[in-house]
Amino acid sequence: MNAINKCKILLKKLVMDNIHEVALFGTDDVAGIIHNLITHSLVKIKAVYDDSSDKRWLSYDVLPLENIKGFNGQIIVSNLIGVEKKVELLKRMGIRGEQIIVI
Question: What is the pTM of this model?
């Protein structure tokens, strides 16, 4: 299954689970796909976090990853490569496993 279809399925599941706000961890191509699909969805992007030096991504301020501590919502790891490493990093920062969504 390709990334676009995976993202469509994810967004449908979020709506079915009554989740209307998410944060993105990462600003790669998958994040762009999610952004494009989410504009036609009931789900909204609340924040964008990344461990890069980018300050802006599309219309969002990119927050440093250390700011994710204490975030209580769902976080989509918007990468297809190195996902396990990103998930472990989030968990080390205090994010609970049930908050983390992978594509």
Answer: 0.91
